[in-house]
Amino acid sequence: MPMQNRVQELRDMLPKEQKGISSYVEHALQSIDQLVEQHRCQNAALAIYGDKINGNEERVYFDTVSQIKADLLDTLEKTVQDFLHTGDKHWSKNYRDGVKG
Questions:
Q1: Can you give the pLDDT at residue 57?
Q2: Which of 1, 7, 30, 59 has a 20 to 30 A CA-CA distance from 75?
């Protein structure tokens, strides 16, 4: 499932007052995508001028970016779970400081 769809799905699960959290994650993902696009453009310009692009470094870069995006989405999912279980004494919070509904 594309990340944007998953963020929207999680936004729909949040209480009305808390939907801004999902907007923050969505904006962060968009910013990361913009940085990746800038990186591609810079590499393209370097390649035009004859610089050799290191494939291993590129793989590490894109793997890291993918991991950061997945971690942002995972954090949002855990936060939504904590919101959905507010008041449930049998729920083990994902985050010690909890969430306020």
A1: 95
A2: 59
